[in-house]
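User: Second chain of the day. Same drill as before.
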Amino acid sequence: MKKKSQKENSKVDKHNSQNLLKRIHEENITEIEPVYNPEKGCKNCYPVIEAIIGSDVEIEPLLEEITESGGLVKELFDKTILCPRCNSQYISTRYNCPYCNSFDIEKSSLIEHTKCGYMDVEQKFRKKKKIVCPKCNNILKKEDFDYKKAGVWCKCNNCSKNFDIPTPTHFCRICGTISTFEEVKLKNVYSYIVKDSPKSGSSASEFVYIAVNNFLEKKGWKVKSPASIKGKSGAEYSFDIAAFKGSKKDKTIVIDIAVSSDEIVAEQPVVALFAKIFDVSPKKSVLVTVPKLSKNGKKMAKLYNIQIIEAKNQTQVIDRLKEIL
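Assistant: Same format as last time:
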């Protein structure tokens, strides 16, 4: 079997993203946070979504598709380091000697005796379980009174040099590449917040779609969305939602959704829907408009026998749909 290319695998089917958002709401998920895996890093690292769609599906493109449609809001959660050679996130940090670049270094604390002013590494102050000043031999009991921590001090076991600030490097545990900050790649990792209400035209369409789908399925309808139905002429027509009960000819509902960022939806969606139902002849045809349909649009809908649902939120859509059914 021919394997799909990475480009083909990365393509997001809008129908899949809509179904995923529907499942997210059904599962009452409010926030999607990544969980870091030492070997995989933060690629496909959303277990709550993996539990819904499986581990063999690219999750991030789906979440980005839903975010672009307004169903999710993403927030920067973390930044991970990528190996510049193999793109692995299985990276560890090493602290190196600034003189010979060896990572075989020892870290110590500097201690200053407050009274006499002597300062050295902590090991030289330690005598059994006591802290004793090597210069004046006084026992130091209380930190920040008898003595204070004055920073850190490092010693390289390779070249024996002393220093206070080591040089960090990144070691890839997959391919062994050692890289500096200038060489590594940084990847943004996001968490996603599930929107409770639409704030834009595209998000409104997404939320109406979910509400209508859930309602019809609970009422025993077989729902397809988006749906393609063949008309009497043999031509195929697309609808946002189609619902069937019993024989398709006996009871078929087709629904289109029209959203406007302005206060009024123009009459064009009515004309477009009529052109389709004229050939398909469904039992009922419904146009959901957010927020309102124009006066001309309402007159045309009445003439074409198209049921209109004007709504500002999901509740209004479902209440009106109950009346129509």
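Residues 47 and 62 are 14 Å apart (CA to CA).

User: Great, on to the next one.
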